[in-house]
Amino acid sequence: MSPALPTPSPTPSPPDDAPADTAFAPAAIAHTDSGGAPRGHAVRALVASVLGYAMDGFDLLMLGFMLPAIGADLHLTGAQSGALVTWTLVGAVVGGIVFGLLSDRFGRVRVLTWTILLFAVFTGMCALARGYTDLLIYRTIAGIGLGGEFGIGMALVAEAWPARLRARASSYVGLGWQVGVLAAALLTPWLLPVIGWRGMFAVGLLPAVASFFVRRRVEEPELFVAHRERAAQAAPQDKPRALRLLIADARTARASLGVAVLCSVQNFGYYGLMIWLPAYLSKSFGYSLTKSGLWTAATVAGMAFGIWLFGVAADRFGRRPTFLAYQAGAVVMVFVYAHLSTPFALLIGGAAMGMFVNGMIGGYGALISELYPTAARATAQNVLFNIGRAVGGFGPLAVGALAARYSFTAALGMLAAIYVLDIVATLFLIPERRGTALE
């Protein structure tokens, strides 16, 4: 049983240093916490958001499994196969920014539906690809749809759930990625030999069903509806610009810089570790592909536990203390893991390392939601996280270069060092907002 969460005293207004919605601050509505169980609409919002982020994880790992078959069938070079992944991520960065802005203007549920439909349709189109060029176009556009799901889902859940459970609910959205990765790891090796890579892409049409569930069963949060009504009544010159609100004043700009650093380190460490971990186990210890996969799975299991635990701890102890504990744990465990050598130690050490390295994904939804007003919440989630995703794309490159020039141990040591930067950013740039009423 998870530890009971304390019910914070009502917070009528944000702390003095809270970033303000300069256009609507006088009319800001507090998102109160009744202390009761989440209502049905909050649960449906959570389910929709988890499904969206699960599709993100499922798609990227599924593509990794399919690349050899796609390359052989379409006669692609290694560089062309790699470009399919790269441009999917490029599309995700673009989509995250664009759909974040659209969500703050038109609504969380409506735009989340758009992102799912765009992803589903162009993933299905990949099944009809005749060569490299059209497949690359379809993958890029599918990536655009994919990129909006994380931030919109996080904003939707934060606005729908009570403050005392906000971090825990956000951590469940973070777990969606792990669910998607696990589903891809289990289903793709089984389905791919049967239906081929074109059939696997055709399966990608199924999320279109989820989009109808989202549109018909999930309501816009009351907080966003109230904001939209105020925005409709405001003069054009008084309406806030979401991107400007990320740097509305010095305190907000510092917070935005801090969150961008945290998201960059998060993605850099995650991609750098997960892309190279099987190769590290194989080259350094002679593990077979199956054994490397099993030991990597232990790391993923640790990540999932870490995400859940982060949400519980952040609601009980606060965002900053929990981030600092995980960041310190990441420094220690990545360094320790680099010096382990026995199979059992690598198994347990990998799970512990995964818990700290990726467990922090469970905290970004609540943290970012509490730092920005409703007029910019989804924009902040998607822009700042996708800045981190763009930086994180260099993680595998940096780890690979260091491993080739020095050793995997040296590369892992570099990954451990970057979490020190995380600690500095949290200490000096990130304010505490636990229990704060959303504006």
UniProtKB/TrEMBL annotation:
Entry-linked Gene3D superfamilies: MFS general substrate transporter like domains
Region of interest called Disordered, as start-end residue ranges on this chain: 1-22
Organism superkingdom: Bacteria
Cross-referenced SUPFAM superfamilies: MFS general substrate transporter
Membrane-spanning intervals of the chain: 45-70, 82-102, 111-130, 136-157, 169-189, 195-214, 257-281, 293-311, 323-340, 346-371, 383-404, 410-430
InterPro entries documented for this protein: MFS (IPR011701), MFS_dom (IPR020846), MFS_trans_sf (IPR036259), Sugar_transporter_CS (IPR005829)
Keywords: Membrane, Transmembrane, Transmembrane helix
Residue ranges the record marks as coiled coil: none
Record-annotated Major facilitator superfamily (MFS) profile domain positions: 45-434
UniProt-recorded name of the protein: Benzoate transport
Origin species: Paraburkholderia eburnea
